Amino acid sequence: MEELKIMVQDDIRRLEEAIKTGRPEDIVDILSFIEYKTSSFTTEELEKLAEKLIEILGARKGVATKKAESMLKSLYPHVKEKIISHLWSDIPFVRNSVLEIIAYHRDRETVRKLTKDKDQDIRKFGIDIAFKIGDTEILRQTIDDEDLNVAISSAEYLAGLGDRSSIERIVDRLSKIPEDDIWSKLFILEALLKLEYQGTVELVKKHFKDLSDSLIRKYYIKACGVSGNKEYLSELINILKNEKSDKKEVLNSLIVLLRSISLSPSEKERLNEALRQIIKDLGVEELELVQEIYSLL
Q: What is the domain range of residue 155?
């Protein structure tokens, strides 16, 4: 047993020397040699090896970095806490590698713990992993995080995963954002638009008094499109005819709206008239959108 321990110590020593002075290829050769022996390592020896592998990640030693990350993935079940501790590393690449390793193992228990950490940055790491593994349950719980960055990211991730069951919670979180925090509100509204929440247009009108503001106007136009409400057809037609708003945005919103409503002959004619009025000023992309609108009439 003592002899085996000495051999392990020699292997680690050789690895340390290679990290300091060797080529990446030399490090890979030593790691490959060590890899076949890890089943006989004690927990203490595995932790020491994990530290050296993390050191290789931090040094960004080419092919050796890939080998180190691969070995850390294999060692994770045995030295999980040691690897997770490097989420607090000062080196971004090391932190990101640890995130990928946790996600690779779909370690929901660890992700839950991370999302409840006192450090908001660690909680953010937790939801980053939850998104990578598609865990909407965890993300729904973090919408109420006290840190707005974590809450907004949770909403954006849920929207990215198409989780419409989270809409009510996202709307509730929007109501708790300070009135003067315009950008946070817009990020939340963007998530609701991505989920095509029909009530988004009413939320835009509720939270922003000046709908003519160029930035707010963009969100309002998109919200009219997902409203599923024929009432907003006239609004979009008027914007298309009378405003200098981005025609592409208005046309896209019309397409979204037309997919969810039916038009009467008179409504079709009003839309046709508006399109004829602006068509001479449109570019190729806008004309393609007009063709799609005609296909929906």
A: 106-197
- In tens, the pLDDT along 29-42 reads 888 888 888 888 88
Q: Which residue has the tokens 């002899």?
A: 3
Q: Are 114 and 122 in contact (CB under 8 A)?
A: yes
The candidate with the shortest Cα–Cα distance to 130, out of 155, 165, 93, is 155
Token duo for residue 222: 């998109």
Q: How are the residues of the chain apportioned to helix, strand and coil, as percentages rounded to the nearest 5?
A: 75, 0, 25
Mean pLDDT, consecutive 10-residue stretches, the chain (297 aa), reads 56 74 82 83 88 90 90 94 95 95 96 96 96 96 95 97 96 93 96 96 93 90 95 92 82 94 90 89 89 91
Give the whole-angstrom CA distance, residue 200 versus residue 220.
9
End-to-end CA distance of the chain: 81
Q: Let me know: does 203 contact 192? Beta carbons within 8 Å.
A: yes
Taking the C-alpha atoms of residue 221 and residue 131, their distance in angstroms, rounded to an integer, is 29
Task: Note the pLDDT of residue 6.
Answer: 56
Do 260 and 206 share a structural domain?
A: yes
Structure tokens at 27: 């490090």
Residues 47 and 136 in one domain: no
Structure pTM? 0.86
CA 271 distance to own-chain centroid: 37
User: What is the predicted pLDDT for the residue at 4?
Assistant: 47
Same domain, 77 and 13: yes
Closest CA relative to residue 60, chosen from 88, 9, 96:
96
Look at the block and give the residue holding tokens 């640890």: 98
**In a domain? residue 146:** yes
**CATH number, domain with residue 163:** 1.25.10.10
